[in-house]
Amino acid sequence: MASVTLTDVSKRFGDNTVVKNVFLDIADGEFVVLVGPSGCGKSTTLRMIAGLEDITEGELKIGERVVNDMTPRDRDVAMVFQSYALYPHMTVYDNISFGLRLRKMPKPEIDKRVRDAAQKLGLTELLDRKPKAMSGGQRQRVAMGRAIVRQPAVFLFDEPLSNLDAKLRVQMRAEIARMHRREGVTTVYVTHDQIEAMTLADRIVVMNFGVVQQVGAPLELYREPANTFVAGFIGSPSMNLFDVDLRATGGEPTVTGKGLSVPVPERLRPHLGDQTKLVLGVRPEHLSEAVDGPHMTARVDMLEPLGAEVHALGDVEGQPIVASLEPDTAVRVGGPVGLRMDLDQIHLFDRETGLALGRQAHRGAA
Amino acid sequence: MSGHTSSTQQSTAGERLLKNLFLVALCVMVLYPVVWVFKMAFTPSQGFSMSLNPIPENPSLANFEYLLTELPFFTWLFNSVVISLATTLVGVFLACTSAYALSRFRFPGRTTAMLSFLVTQMFPGVLMMIPLYLIMDWLGLLDHLLGLILVYSTTAIPFCVWMLKGYFDTIPIDLEEAAMMDGASTATIFWKVILPLSLPAVAVTALFSFMTAWNEFILAAVFMNRADNYTLPVGLQRLVGQFSTDWGYFAAGAILVSIPVVALFFALQKNLVGGLTAGGVKG
Q1: Which residues of B touch A98 (CB under 8 A)?
Q2: Does the beta carbon of A38 lie under 8 angstroms from any beta carbon of chain B?
Q3: Are A118 and A127 in contact (CB under 8 A)?
Q4: Could you give the ipTM of this predicted complex?
Q5: b/e code B146-160 from CB counts within 10 Å (16+ = b)
Q6: Per the structure, how many domains does chain B have?
Q7: I need a labelling partner for A245 at 20 to 30 A (CA). Which of A44, A144, A312, B12 fits?
Q8: Are residues B136 and B165 in the same domain?
Q9: Which residues of chain B have a Cβ shorter than 8 Å from any chain A Cβ?
């Protein structure tokens, strides 16, 4: 087991910088999820840790060793691929034991480890099968088995669940969480699925355009997004964002946008600077129907009943909005709905930099 | 629409008969010469029988007996087998390794190498005869089995490289990265992961190399001067004299020569089909 430390790590392909100045300290035994949209550099970062991509600039340490110039096999890391990447011509047993055999481990020890891993993953019955005779979930488990038997210092996962159907995905997600609790091995996990990120991670690293946007515990990212990108990316449905202007109305600072106007809550006032062009963020679940004194009125054009709640999709004077309403709401498609924000839960961002008021840019971010 | 369908169905019986007659005629056209070779091989006279009857009139094994006892047939067979097997081994090994490098590594001259392999395939082999003869003479390999092995391997390699590179390209890179993470070196990846997965393609290229060497006549005839260095095709050609041709022996020889190739074909048949289609489909 080991910590993983990235210091000012960058990756360029020709003139194209895909990972920019990443600083990241992953503690021993921690489960860190890299998340972001396609092409944000999360997979490249993982592959640099694995040793499958060269590091253009910066320093990568696993434990106390600088591993920049080490081959994957000397780094003591194991990786689970999105495509599973099982060797099609080998049985499950041979797939799992391949790495151990290459390390010339004694046969009885190999056998013990393989059977142990197979038992943990429910693969004992399948050890003689070849990959093509197995389902997606079983293959996924073999890929995990191949990583577990190595007892590496670090586990790397590259979107391991995205080829599975929804139900299996939930199952395997739980399995990965259990595995991490049991083995306690430092894990770096890449996904574009924020639910996976929220449910698995000790800490989440949100990336966009090769730049780390924010690092934090799942709820921290949800409660205190550092910028408009994280605000929009974490949480489902996404946070509603409105362009607003800061004004002082009768001595009280107020933000006003198209069709809405709210006083700036007490807790945000110390962070107000001379910047008057702001973005107001409010999550769908922090909006509620209001009969009198609504902050704004939306026109509803779609309702998504989910049972425990109803998502009302619509717009406020042309600005799209989603609100999460009570299941017994009387709101109808085409009708107006008056909405109140929970003022304790709103966010204000600088429109120019995108940063939350009172926030500095993440270290390494341009 | 339905009326149209039923009318097609009605005419099917007659159409089917016509189609089958046509196909049978084609089969006869293709197979008759082969049958005729068999007829000559089993007919003891050495003349050219003009009768259309494909059944030998008084069948005998005399031609085979003559070939196997009066001619150095087994010497020629030995030469052919040694040359063909060695060509296959050398050619396939070099083609596999270079195709893998061309498929997976990016290095200066990669495209040029691929193209020059292709360009060599555009010239008829006869063009290379004189330069090859000079080189062989210079190396002192004229009239040596090794000389032919070298020449056949080098001429077979470009095709084999293209064939194998195409196949290697379809093997997902993830597999190699997984092996790398498992601690495999490039050589281990090649031998333990890539080659076992490429057996169909290797089988096709091996068969191609073998057949090229086994059937080649012109270069062998030019380079080999002593009768005990002849390959089978060269030896058999000597039966075609300037004034008379011993058709019976020739036909019997042709049958004997084709037996190993046919046997190989059947042995590799399953892989061949897989190998030839595998280029297009992943996995």
Answers
A1: 179, 182, 184, 192
A2: no
A3: yes
A4: 0.82
A5: ebbbbbbbbbbbbbb
A6: 2
A7: A312
A8: yes
A9: 172, 174-175, 177-185, 188, 192-193, 196-197, 283
